[in-house]
Amino acid sequence: MQKQKGKKGAKKATAGESSKDETTNEKPAGDDNPVVETLETEAADQTPEPAVEQEEKKEEEPQEDAPTEPMPDAPTSPDLETNPDETKELPLRGAHKRQPSLSVQSKMRSSSFRNSISTAVSPGSSIKSPPLPPLAPGDEQIHEVFRRQTARVEELEKENKRLEKEYSSANARREKAEEELEDLRESSVEVIELKGRLAKAEEQVAELESLKTEIASLQRQNSLLQSKTHRSSSGHADSPPSELVQQLESKSSTIEAMEIEISNLRAELSTSSTSIDGFKSQITALEEKLSQSESALQKTQGELSDVKQSLS
Fold first, then answer.
1. Are the CB atoms for 181 and 273 separated by under 8 Å?
2. I want to staple 167 with a disulfide (CB 3.0 to 4.6 A). Which of 54, 90, 126, 300 is the partner?
3. Quick one: average pLDDT of 296-312?
4. What is the pLDDT of residue 98?
5. What is the 3-state secondary structure (H, E, C) of 238-291?
6. Rounded (10°) CA dihedral 158, 163, 169, 171
7. What is the model's pLDDT at position 106?
8. Residues 248, 222 contacting (CB under 8 angstroms)
9. Which of 20, 50, 13 is nearest to 37 (CA)?
10. d(Cα 213, Cα 57) in Å, to the nearest integer?
């Protein structure tokens, strides 16, 4: 029994050494961190060994205490029955040796990549990188055209703003001129009324002239009558007929009233003529302003449409 146990221990020791040799032999060629991998494999190999040794000691102790007991029949696979932990640990160690962890793989790849870059760059490290090629003349022309277009757009926007201001001011002037024209039209109605009154005054003046001629004829008749009466009467001065005197007085009174009215009408006519002249001058000035504002408005509208077309 002790021989069998010794054989089993030797087999286990040889199995552990062979697993260690396999871990060292199966190390990948491109691994730049062999120390890390060997430490991991040794730690994985050394972890199950104390448990196996304790189990062997436990088996040896009862056998030494009872040497006279007969041995049972040996199983077909004694290693698997006696050491189930070892059978579980072996495939795990093999899988660990076949497939390293992701961190180890990434370290291996990064180290191999750095080594390849260092070997590729080291011989030509003294060579400088070529300078960047200069800009082609076509690119410079494109940039110049772009700058010109942006400057032109800014100028057109400024011109557009200026024209909009002029357009608004022209509209304000036009509205003001229209209001003044309406006022003048209202005043023109008053002028028409004054013209009618002036025509009436002229008619009255004509009547006054006719009355003056009639008064002159009556005065001549009166003088003739007076001369005749002086001749007929030798020393008696007869008074003129009373009818003629009454007619003369009534006509003289009407003449005085008409003269007063004519003077008033002439004053009104002079004032109305001066006001008419002032209104006419204002109307002509406003018509000129209105025409100028309309022409400026049309001009600004044309410029504004041109600017909008150029911007679009």
1. no
2. 300
3. 79
4. 60
5. CCCCHHHHHHHHHHHHHHHHHHHHHHHHHHHHHHHHHHHHHHHHHHHHHHHHHH
6. -150
7. 78
8. yes
9. 20
10. 178
CA distance 138 to 183: 66
Q: For residue 10, what are its two tokens? A: 């030797």
Q: What single-letter DSSP state applies at residue 195?
A: H
Q: In this model, does residue 143 exceed pLDDT 80?
A: yes
Q: Which residue has the tokens 């009408």?
A: 265
Q: 282-291 — which CB contacts under 8 Å span 24+ positions?
A: 282/180, 282/184, 283/181, 283/184, 283/188, 286/177, 286/180, 286/181, 286/184, 287/181, 289/173, 289/177, 290/174, 290/177, 290/178, 290/181
The three-state secondary structure class of 88 is helix
Q: Is pTM beyond 0.70 here?
A: no
Q: Which two tokens stand for residue 268?
A: 């009104």
CB 101 within 8 A of CB 39: no
CB count in 10 Å sphere of residue 57: 9
Per the document, the length of the chain is 312
Residue 233 DSSP SS3: coil
Q: Which of 100, 119, 129, 123 is nearest to 31 (CA)?
A: 100
311's tokens: 């911007």
Token pair, residue 118, equals 């260092």
Amino acid (1-letter code) at residue 197: R
Q: Which two tokens stand for residue 149?
A: 């277009």
- The residue with tokens 């007969």 is 70
